[in-house]
Amino acid sequence: MEEKDIILKAEHISKQYRLGLVGTGTISHDLNRWWHKVRGKADPYLKVGESNDRSTKGQSEYVWALQDINFEVERGEVLGIIGKNGAGKSTLLKILSKVTGPTTGEIKTRGRIASLLEVGTGFHGEMTGRENVYLNGAILGMTKKKFRLKLMKLLSFQVVSVI
Fold first, then answer.
1. Phi and psi dihedrals of 130, rounded to 5?
2. Domain ABC transporter spans what residues (predicted)?
C-alpha cells in the first residue's frame, strides 16, 4: 500500500467569535485560551451545544464560524472551498494562512501557504507592478535569488495578445 503524501491536514478545526463590542477582551481571551491549551485543559470560552443560527437572537455572546472541520490534501491535489455567504470560507482561509488561529483543532502543513483573501490586498498604487511583486515575495520570506528564479518562470508563461 502506497503512503500518502499529505501536504495539508486540518484536524477538528473550529472557530468561535465573540459578538458585541469589537476588541473587548479579545487579547485577554486569547491569552486565557493559550494558557489553558498549554496546560492541556479545555477552552474556557467554548460553549458546546449552542446554535450558530445568526438569524435568531440568542442569549449567547458567541457565534461559531466553523465547527469540527477535517480534511487532508495530498501533493498534486486541488482543494476548492465553496459555500453560501457566512458559511465560514474566509474564516477557514484565514486560519490556513495563519492570519488568525482556530479556537480548537490543529493545522499541519508541509510547505508554505500563501493566500489572497481580498482582491487588491498587499498591492500599493504608488508602486510599479514589479515593485509590488518583489514586495510580496519579501513578505513571503523569499530570498532575492529564489524570487528571481520564480519570477523568470512566471514571466516565461506570460502571453500578450492584441485584440
1. -65, -40
2. 66-112
Sole residue written with cell 490556513: 96
Question: Model confidence over 78-119: pLDDT tens digits?
Answer: 888 888 988 999 899 889 888 789 999 999 998 877 665 655
Query: Could you give the C-alpha distances from 14 to 92, 105, 155, in angstroms and in order?
Result: 9, 6, 39
Give the C-alpha separation, 19 to 161, whole Å.
50
Q: What are the tens digits of pLDDT across the range 118-142?
A: 556 667 778 887 787 777 777 777 8
Count of other CB atoms within 10 angstroms of residue 23 = 7
Question: Torsion angle, CA of 25/26/31/33, rounded to 10 degrees?
Answer: 100
Question: Beta strand pairing status for 104-109 and 62-74?
Answer: unpaired
* pTM of the complete model beyond 0.90: no
Q: Which of 25, 24, 8 is nearest to 95 (CA)?
A: 8
- Cα R_g (the chain), whole angstroms: 20
The position carrying cell 488568525 is: 100
Q: Rounded CA gap, 32 and 45, in Å?
A: 9
